[in-house]
Design a protein that fits this description.
Layout lengths: L10 H44 L1 H32 L5 H33 L3 H27 L3 H25 L2 H23 L8 H7 L1 H28 L2 H19 L1
Helix pairs in contact: 1-2, 1-5, 1-9, 2-3, 2-4, 2-6, 2-8, 2-9, 3-4, 3-7, 4-5, 4-6, 5-6, 8-9
């Protein structure tokens, strides 16, 4: 049944809720675009800076660590934050806070578990690749937690906080990259990239006032298994191809070829986006 405005009630008054909802939607989309732009620009800048600082071969090693992170990131999203966004967007704050504590704890747990595997693989590999994967393993928990905060804030409809968190990462990246350039090693750049993400991850705890609960990760996985494992398979199937291609190229031609291909992809990125 449609309500009829009472006497003295203006059309502007009755339309206000719809207008407010429209403005809120536009605001969310704007912050989402701003956050994506900040993330894309920082990734592009980091890639170019590392390539110029290290050269093609060393940049190829960095790129292998980068694409590995991309696959692990999609594993974390599938298990932790994708179910969060689907089931806990627009819910009461108390429900959101409880879900975020478990979801971010799951992301932290995924980062820790796969980080240990990466560290062990790096120690076993040695050579050029080993130190990069050892450092990646150390930094994965912070990298995944930072990404989990972004998704958590978007689930709450607070894209502004997600954007600010990415800005903090970008600001922390600047001095970290300068220091890494003076050291001039792949390991230093991986540490600089991961440490600046850890700064943003810590800031996310401050922004939300929530402490990730790793101890409840198993319960979260059990509760969200109908969505989590489905997203896991989908995400990894989409991102795993790039990792296999990079590994295959490195094994057949050499890591220098990986660096050359990755550099070309970086330079083409802005044009493809347009």
């Amino acid at each position: 049944m449609t309500s009829t405005p009472v006497e003295g009630e203006s059309a502007q008054t009755t339309a206000r809720p719809a207008g407010s909802a429209k403005r809120a939607l536009v605001g969310r989309l704007s912050w989402g675009l701003a956050d994506q732009a900040a993330s894309s620009i920082s990734n592009f800048a980091v890639g170019i800076y590392v390539a110029r600082s290290l050269g093609v071969t060393a940049f190829g090693v960095f790129s292998l660590a980068w694409v590995t992170y991309g696959v692990v990131l999609n594993v974390s999203r599938g298990l932790s934050t994708d179910p969060l966004v689907v089931r806990f967007s627009g819910v009461p704050e108390a429900n959101w806070r409880g879900a975020v504590a478990r979801s971010t704890g799951t992301a932290l747990g995924v980062g820790t578990a796969i980080g240990v595997l990466s560290l062990a693989a790096g120690l076993a590999l040695g050579g050029r690749l080993g130190p990069a994967f050892v450092c990646l393993g150390v930094m994965l928990p912070g990298l995944l937690l930072q990404d989990a905060w972004r998704f958590s804030f978007f689930a709450a409809g607070n894209g502004r906080k997600a954007f600010l968190n990415d800005v903090v990462w970008c600001v922390a990246l600047v001095p970290a990259m300068v220091v890494a350039a003076h050291v001039s090693s792949v390991a230093a750049f991986v540490l600089a990239w991961g440490a600046s993400a850890a700064v943003a991850a810590a800031y996310g705890c401050f922004q939300s006032g929530i402490r990730p609960r790793m101890t409840e990760a198993r319960g979260w996985l059990r509760e969200q298994r109908d969505l989590g494992y489905r997203y896991l398979v989908e995400n990894v199937s989409l991102s795993g191809a790039s990792q296999l291609r990079a590994y295959g190229l490195g094994a057949i031609v050499g890591v220098g070829a990986v660096g050359a291909v990755r550099g070309a992809e970086l330079l083409m990125g802005p044009f493809l986006a347009v």
